[in-house]
Every structure is written in C-alpha cells, then in structure tokens.
Amino acid sequence: LFDGPVDAVWIENMNSVMDDNKVLTLINSERITMPPQVSLLFEVEDLAVASPATVSRCGMVYNDYKDFGWEPYVSSWLNSFTNKTYVTTMRKNFDMYVGPMLEFVRLQCDQVVVVPELSAVAALCKLLTILTTEANGFVSDPPDINQYEYYARLWFLFCMIWSLCAGVNEAGRRKVDTYIREMEGVFPLKDTVYEYFVDVKSQNFVSWEVELSSSWRYDPELPFFKIVVPTVDSVRYEYFTSKLLAASHPVLLVGVVGTGKTSTAHSVLQGLDDT
C-alpha cells in the first residue's frame, strides 16, 4: 500500500514492478521479484506528475470527496478517541450543527478565501483536538453529564465559528452571528459571536476583551511605526495561531492590507522557544 503523493522520481522505478515480469530493479542493480500473491495499491491525491506509462499500468478508482461528504472524515476522526462520552457528545454536535452551518455559509455568505467544505470540517476537527483536552475539563468520567454536554457544546460552537465560519467577510460575520443566535442562546447579547471565547474556569463564554492587559505600556525607544497596540483582533488571532503551531498544524493568515497579519505572525514567532 502506497499512501501519499506521487513523486516522479520513485514512481517511474515502479513501472517494471507493474509489468508482467513484476521485477523491481534497485539503484545498486539488485533485482527483487514480486510474488504472484502480492498486489500494489496506490492511494494518492492526484496524478499530476505520473507519466502515461505509469497510469496505463494501473486500474483506476476515482473517489471525489463530494460523493461521500464530510461524515466519513468525522467518523474516522472520532474513532481515534477512546473516551466514549466524548465521542457520543461530539457526534451529536456534528450531526446537529455542521450540515446546516456549511449550507448557510455556502449560500448566504461571501468568503475572503473560499475554503472547501471538507477542509473546513478538517479545521474544525483540528481545533477540537487541540482545545477539548483533559486539561480543559474533558475528563473520561464526568460527574455531571448534563454540564459536560453543555460545556462540550460551548467548545464545539467556538471551534465551529473559527473553522467553518472563519473565512467569511464582515457582512458574512453579521449573518453568521444572527444565524447561530437563532440556533443557540448560549452567547451573551453584546457584540457578535466572534467576540467571545470559552473560559475554562467559569465554563461559559467570556469576551476577548478580558484578555487585553490593562497594564500595557508602549516602549518609548521603539520607532512610532513599529508600535503595535494590542486589540481584541490581535489577541484572538495570536491565540489561534499559537495553538495551531504548537500542535504542528500550518496556519494561513488572510485579509486586506492593514489587518495585522504580519504583526500577528511576528508576535507569535517571537513567543516561540528555540525548540
């Protein structure tokens, strides 16, 4: 089983194995014969660099993720957890929110960068993996299942907003805010749903404004154009970027000129340790 992108260098060396003689010739001229009971299976994303000689030697089965939807990906992700309470709770949240939310974003919102639905769901799973941890209160045997499900729903909504709905423009955010509030009444009435995060201690939504330091002072030795004043936007974007990078996930910062992409990247990178 070959699972990964096709590389033009090594795939050409496999052509002789896929011939009738089924012989693999190595760089050191050693020859290995493949037994008749062995078959090769290539699971690849595309055939962009595969030559016609390679393609003609294989039988092709093409699967478009749109034919299957996002559900198989989520099922595979949930199967990686051993906490049955967590799996059951999260499956309910996926079934309840993700389908309608994806449809709403697709039909009602304009996105700064169009994100495929499967990629958006994958981003949701990544955020849930990073944030819904035992350190944040997701124990395997919760004493109060109702409170556990409520707390899990808060985290799910929070991660959903910053994955499925993260790429919409300002007008889209207002639409998302209205739509989510129609589904759920767990958010404070002030501002939009984008202005809140889940506080672990209180197990409720709290405004990002509480994360702004009241003791912040600018460095008088810095040139004026290098002074960056912390805002709600900078705090939350640095939060997500730091969490994703700590888990070795790539991050793409998008936006028009002057929205703080470069300053966010600099701030996060300066906060990383040498490892």
Helix share of residues? 40-55%
Mean pLDDT across every amino acid position: 85
N-end to C-end Cα span? 34 Å
- Give the CA-based shape: globular
Instruction: Give the strand line-up of the largest sheet.
Output: 1-4
Contiguous runs where pLDDT drops below 50 for at least 5 residues: none
Order of helices and strands: EHEEEHHHHHHHEEHH
- As a percent range, the share of strand residues is 5-15%
Helix/strand class? mainly alpha
The fourth-level CATH homologous superfamily of the largest domain is Dynein motor, AAA2 domain, small subdomain
- CATH T-level fold name of the largest domain: Cyclin A, domain 1
Q: What's the level 1 CATH class of the largest domain?
A: Mainly Alpha
Q: How many domain units?
A: 3
Helical segment count:
10
Computed over alpha carbons, the radius of gyration is 24 Å
Beta-strand segment tally: 6
The CATH architecture designation of the largest domain is Orthogonal Bundle
What about the largest sheet? 2 strands, parallel
